[in-house]
Structures are given as structure tokens and as C-alpha cells.
Design a protein that fits this description.
Length: 157
Amino acid sequence: MELFIAFIASILLWLMFVGLVLLWIIDGRIKKEQALHAFFSSTTAWTVSQMIKQIFPRPRPYQLNGHQLLTVTLNHYDGSFPSTHAALAFSIAFAVYLHSKKLGTFFMICAFLVALGRVLSNVHYAVDVVGGGIVGATTAYFLDKLHLDKLIGKKGK
């Protein structure tokens, strides 16, 4: 069970990024648009979550309760709120969902597993992953409304 928790807490997010690369490689404007939107959303969500961490520094659960840390990620010395992993996972998932409900649902399930893994691995509290999820989904939504494909010179939707 600990191996599964470490996988969903640490590795699954990277597999979501691999999925974006595969979307990019697949022919079709919609697939490339999905991937591009998700990459921009995840970069923005990471930046926003890092800024919030600086404003609201909060110790991580394992630092307070002394329980075992079940992740393979190296740096856990920044603040707990919001979860950057959850922000990234939900920004990717929501960005894909806005373009493709079927594929987006798969990515959403992965994002929920990442968030669950971060709590079960003793790195975040539930409110941290909810906050990260809100940051990620909100970022993806607003970037979708900006129509990034038009901003970078591609033809509109």
C-alpha cells in the first residue's frame, strides 16, 4: 500500500505530463491546443501556488505529527498550503477537460489520485489539496477564456 501511495503522490503527476507530450505528438489542432493550454495552465498554476505559499507559510503534516513521509519527491521544506502538486494536476486535467470531456475525465481521475496521494503520504492536509485544486482549475479556466491560440498567432477556435 505504501508503494501505491508513493506512486500516486509522486510519480502520477509526471505521467500526466507525459500524457500531454503524447497529446502534442498526436496530429490534429485540437490535441495540440489541449496540450498547449495544459502546459500554460500548469506553469501559471505553479507560479500562483508558489506565491500563495510565500504569503501563507504553513508546516507540513509530517513536520508536526512525526509520521513517515511516503513520497519520493525531494523538497518538502516549503509551505504546505496550497499543494503545488494538486494545482499542477488539476490545471492539466481541467485544461484537457475543457477541450475533451472523455479524455479530460481520465485526467481528472488522475488529478484526484494525485491529491489523495499527497494527503495519504503525509505531505499535505486535505485543505491544501483542495486549495491547490482550486488554483489549478481556476487557472485553466481563465487561460481558456483568453484563447491562447489566438494570442500566439494561430487561427481561432
